[in-house]
């Protein structure tokens, strides 16, 4: 095993939620990251990368070794930002390791990120252990990059991983161009539109030392300190969550009083629900994540937007306020089950009316 040190690694965080942005930055500093750049959305991240373009032979800032980006952001979300990193001529490094972080870890989002060339996908809620594990997977198990007419990104097969029943590719190594370094390129006898990039593991050399052997790992005391950092952040979570519930209540009132902006109100409600579904479990309130997910699904693009739909939102707000008021952590035991049942019955009743 090789003990890693991230002090020489340059990390970019892209996250639109100020509270989560601060929590993530503090957590990563606990596991030895020191060079961290923070942007609020994909648009800011792209502008930052453009600013790094060399002027008179000198870069305006440090090159980024690793990106940790949220998915749902505005005006440019994580998927569009990832597409830019992988395909734009202005991208500083199309092979850059890119970890997508999102509370919307549904299959469609995971598959979309995979098809755009994401390196790893990390679902919210997260922990110090899950964040560090994804980063170590990028370092310990780098995948070759594949370039075709329709794709540029890490090999979507995980060698030796579950779910790969058999090799379905028609082309073998002898049929493609393989790049091992700028100096070593092996081309097939016949022209090809498929390239494999099997480049040196520069990131491992940077965090583990030149020629580091074996798997990299973090010191356990770093992880323990990072988990403690998250526990301290949980004290602030209730304040942040109450603010979001106040916004939800305001949007309910606006939806009822200003029907001409009801669709806009529901779109904002859906975004707030997405944030709540992703954060609660991180800070010891998994019921907030459960209720946030229920609300997110109830207020999606195909959901109802009548008065009863507003009442459904209010029922979710009341349930989440009860969790925060009574400090119902974990699954809440019997109280948690009763709260979930009560909310489900209320939603079912309101949904049935007018259907």
Can you give keywords for this protein?
5-stranded mixed β-sheet; 355 residues; 13% strand; alpha/beta; Rossmann fold; 11 helices
Describe this structure in words.
Helix 1 links the parallel strand 2 (10-14) and strand 3 (35-39). The chain folds into three domains: 2-141 and 208-218, Rossmann fold, CATH 3.40.50; 143-200, no CATH class; 237-352. By secondary structure, it is α/β, with parallel strands linked by helices. It has helices spanning 18-30, 42-51, 78-87, 107-115, 128-140, 202-208, 220-257, 262-279, 286-298, 307-325, 333-352; strands at 2-3, 10-14, 35-39, 66-70, 98-102, 120-123, 145-147, 152-154, 177-181, 184-186, 195-197, 216-217. Mean pLDDT is 88; it is low at 160-165. The protein is globular. Strands 3-2-4-5-6 form a five-stranded parallel β-sheet, with helices on both faces. Strands 8-7-11-9-10 form a five-stranded mixed β-sheet, with no helix packed on it.
CATH topological fold name of the largest domain: Rossmann fold
Largest sheet: 5 strands, parallel
**Shape verdict:** globular
Number of domains: 3
Instruction: Give the DSSP E fraction (strand runs of 2 or more residues).
Output: 5-15%
CATH H-level homologous superfamily name of the largest domain: Response regulator
